[in-house]
Every structure is written in C-alpha cells, then in structure tokens.
C-alpha cells in the first residue's frame, strides 16, 4: 500500500480520487487551500453531492486511511505520490487557466523532502506536464528526485465513484516509464486496461475523448432539429443508429445540450490549442455553436407555444443541475434558458431536488420552489431541463390541475408523447412528432 497526497483534495475530482484510493487500502491525505471545505470535511460534511461518496469518505476517515489538511508540508511529509487535481477553468480567451496548477507545482517543489512522483490528474493543456516539470525543477529547495506522470480522469458526475473503481481504462503518460509503471501499480486491483504513453499523448487523449463525446451529443441535437421539421422521431433514429457497433448508443440522447465542468471548457480549450498552433478547428466550433443553438431553440419553442411572447408569463422550470444525480450547475442549460426567458419578461419559478441550494447565488432573480408541484402551480408553461427520476414519477394529473395552462416543453424527452396527449397536455419534446391537443382546444 502507498502513501498518497491529493492536492485539491476537497474538490470534485480530488475528493473522489482520494476516497477511492483510501478505500483500496492506501493512506491518503487530501490537501486543499480552501480552509472552509477542509473544516467541513473534518466534521464529515461533504462540499459536493455525489451518490455514494459521502459513505466512502466517512468510512475511510473512520478507518484512519483518509484525512485532510491545508498544509503542504504536512501533506507531503510521507507521500510517495502527489496527485494534482486542482481546477483548470476556462480563461477569457477559451484557453485553460493554469494559475492553480502553477501554484500547486511551486508549493510541491518547496515542500517535498523525499523522492516523489507527481501525477497530473487535472485536465490540462498538452504540454502542461513539461510545465510542471520545469516549475518543480526550478523551485525545489533540495536536489530531490521527482518525476511527472499524466493520469487524466474520466469521471462522470453522478457516477464518479463507480467510474473511479470500475474504469474503462487507465491512461498514463510520462518521460520516465518506470514512474508510470509505479503509478500503474496503484490501479492493479481494479483489473482495468492500462495504457502507458508519453506525456503529451496522454494529455491529448483526455481532450480528444471529451470533445468527441460532446460532438456526438451536438450531432444528435442537429438531427433532432431536422426531425422536428421533417416529422421523424429522433429517439427511434438514435436507437437505429446505436445498434450499429461502429456508432454505439451512448451519448445519442437528444435534448437541450451539454454543460457541466468538463465538456464546455475542454472543447473550448482544445479549440484554443488548435487555433493558436496554426490549425483550423472548424468541427469543434460547430459543436459549440450547435450546443448553444439547442438552448435557444428550446426557449423559442416555449415562446411560440405561448403565442409568440413570454412577457408576463409564469414559467415553471424543473431541473437546475446540468444533469441528473449531481448538484453541479456549472454551464448548465438552466442558466442560459432561465436568463433568456427572464430577459423576455417571463416570471420563472424553478425547482431542483439537489442543486436548488446553489440557485440564489447563480439565479438571484429566480423564485425557487420547495417542490415540483409548487413550481407548477399557476404556470403557463412547464419546462423540463434535467432528467431527475423524481420528475419521471410525477403525478401528471395533479400537475395539470395545478397549471394555468397544460403546456409542457420537455428538454430531456422523459415522457411518452402519446400518454401526455391522452392526459390532455400540449406536449413539446426534442426531435419527436407532437401528439397533443392544441391550446386553442383546451381554452375552447
């Protein structure tokens, strides 16, 4: 078993990574400069919502395999491996902001006193491994041996613990194969395929993977827009496509677009890297444009269904997180959709079973309801933006009675169109034929 330090250990990737390594029997110290988060974790309070993570953290803290600190010297005192999991958000020009990565490398250099393998798990631009090597080499106080390994993460919010303990593959890149093989041993018990390559290739694999998945989603949303005009059913189209082994069914769910902490910034960062190195990333730019259009098109459909204007209309929004089973609202479709509807004069009332706690900060002019039914009360339209299971199980007859007008615009295609028509709703979904009564029939 190994001694591991996880820098950024109170964040999403860091906390999940640290808890999983501890659960595999290693001794893990989670280091984070956010004192409030560390204080919460010491009390057993998690700063993020992720299914299964709270139990994992509490179990390993109780077993003495996982603890947290704000001090580099304490975290690195016994460490053999230092995993960097700090945030690398988008900068104003679309590139990755590496300030936290630079700071972490400098702090590691000044605090390490014994041989150390530094593992980049943050999503970083191609060449960042070389940057960390240079920073540590220039700032270390003693001639301590170190190597840098790239080990990109592929965690999906909402299933991060499962992904961490059951990975599709482990990607490792380093200029020193021996260092990469030592990191590989940390993952041996997971029985996952391990690929060892050079630093820059490993870094590119992460960006290429996320950008390809974002491209699949944007592609099916482009097809969905065509289906709406041509009378085809995008769900059946996706099912037929997905049965082709060359394509596969994953990430072919049409909807209101992708968001979150990974796809938006990774696609932008790859586009930026390409553009600044003389390439012409036309496909990546189209992928981002299509994603923006999916959100705008949803608002357009709400507007048209309400007679061409949103001013003075009460709109209920169900779902604030960018996807189900997470409280993450970073670049969530809800932010764009709600702001646009409010700019057009709509009164928006929203509900989310988990992410609502973040809404006052991100959506200060939006009323937050205590339940989906309260959000629906008196609404002229109900818009679904997150596919929470709770929304799939709503008493729709009750929803219809509560609403001023039985109009549902489903950005996640969670309901059966024929059933919604039978219940008396005007039901608009993404890329599927409309089977419903008209508002004129309802009013009449």
Low-pLDDT ranges: 436-444
What is the overall shape?
globular
| Strand content bin | 5-15%
Strand order in the largest sheet: 3-2-1-4-5-6-7-8
Q: Return the domain count.
A: 2
- Average predicted confidence as pLDDT: 95
Specify the number of helices. Answer: 19
CATH class of the largest domain: Alpha Beta
CATH architecture of the largest domain: 3-Layer(aba) Sandwich
Task: Provide the helix percentage.
Answer: 40-55%
Number of strands: 14
Rg result: 24 Å
Structural write-up:
The chain contains 19 helices and 14 strands. It has 444 residues and is α/β, with parallel strands linked by helices. It folds into 2 domains: 3-197, Rossmann fold (3-Layer(aba) Sandwich); 198-444, NAD(P)-binding Rossmann-like Domain (Rossmann fold), CATH 3.40.50. The longest helix has 32 residues, at 199-230. The protein is globular and about 75 Å long. The termini are far apart. The model is unreliable at 436-444 (pLDDT under 50).
What are the SSEs and their pairings?
Elements: E1 3-7, H1 12-23, E2 27-31, H2 35-42, H3 53-62, E3 66-69, H4 72-76, E4 81-84, H5 99-111, E5 116-120, H6 128-139, E6 146-150, H7 160-165, E7 170-174, H8 177-186, E8 194-197, H9 199-230, H10 234-242, H11 263-275, H12 282-305, E9 314-318, H13 333-343, E10 347-351, H14 359-362, E11 367-368, H15 372-376, E12 381-384, H16 389-392, H17 396-402, E13 407-410, H18 417-422, E14 426-428, H19 439-443
Helix pairs in contact: 1-3, 5-6, 9-11, 9-12, 11-12, 12-13
């Amino acid at each position: 078993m190994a001694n591991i330090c996880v820098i950024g250990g109170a964040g999403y990737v860091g906390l999940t990574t640290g808890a999983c390594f501890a659960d595999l029997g290693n001794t893990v110290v989670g280091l984070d400069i956010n004192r409030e988060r560390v204080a919460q974790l010491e009390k057993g309070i998690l700063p993020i919502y992720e299914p299964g993570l709270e139990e994992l953290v509490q179990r390993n803290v109780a077993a003495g395999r996982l603890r947290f600190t704000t001090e580099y010297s304490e975290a690195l005192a016994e460490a053999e491996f230092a995993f960097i999991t700090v945030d690398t958000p988008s900068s104003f020009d679309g590139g990755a902001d590496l300030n936290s990565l630079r700071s972490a490398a400098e702090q590691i250099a000044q605090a390490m006193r014994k041989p150390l393998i530094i593992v980049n798990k943050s999503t970083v631009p191609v060449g960042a491994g070389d940057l960390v090597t240079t920073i540590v080499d220039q700032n270390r106080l003693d001639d301590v041996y170190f190597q840098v390994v790239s080990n990109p993460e592929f965690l999906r919010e909402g299933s991060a613990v499962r992904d961490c303990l059951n990975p599709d593959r482990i990607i490792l890149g380093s200029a020193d194969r021996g260092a990469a093989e030592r990191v590989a041993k940390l993952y041996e018990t997971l029985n996952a395929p391990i690929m060892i390559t050079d630093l820059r290739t490993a870094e590119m694999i992460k960006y290429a993977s996320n950008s390809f998945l974002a491209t699949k989603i944007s592609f099916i949303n482009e097809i969905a827009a065509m289906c709406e005009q041509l009378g085809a059913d995008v769900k059946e189209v996706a099912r037929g496509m997905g049965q082709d082994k060359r394509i596969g069914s994953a990430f072919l769910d049409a909807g209101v677009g992708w968001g979150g902490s990974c796809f938006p910034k990774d696609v932008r960062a790859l586009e930026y890297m390409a553009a600044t190195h003389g390439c012409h990333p036309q496909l990546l730019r189209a992928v981002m444009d299509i994603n923006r259009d999916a959100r705008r098109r949803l608002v357009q459909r709400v507007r048209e269904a309400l007679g061409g204007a949103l001013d003075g209309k009460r709109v209920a929004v169900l779902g604030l997180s960018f996807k189900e089973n997470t409280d993450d609202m970073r670049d969530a479709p809800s932010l764009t959709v709600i702001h646009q509807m409010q700019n057009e004069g709509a009164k928006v009332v929203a509900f989310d079973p988990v992410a609502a706690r973040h809404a006052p900060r991100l959506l200060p002019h939006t009323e937050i309801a205590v339940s989906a039914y309260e959000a629906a009360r008196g609404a002229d339209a109900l818009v679904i933006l997150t596919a929470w299971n709770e929304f799939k199980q709503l008493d729709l007859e009750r929803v219809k009675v509560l609403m001023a007008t039985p109009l549902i615009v489903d950005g996640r295609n969670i309901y059966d169109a024929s059933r919604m028509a039978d219940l008396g709703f005007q039901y608009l979904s993404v890329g599927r034929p409309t089977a419903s009564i008209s508002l004129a029939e309802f009013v009449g």
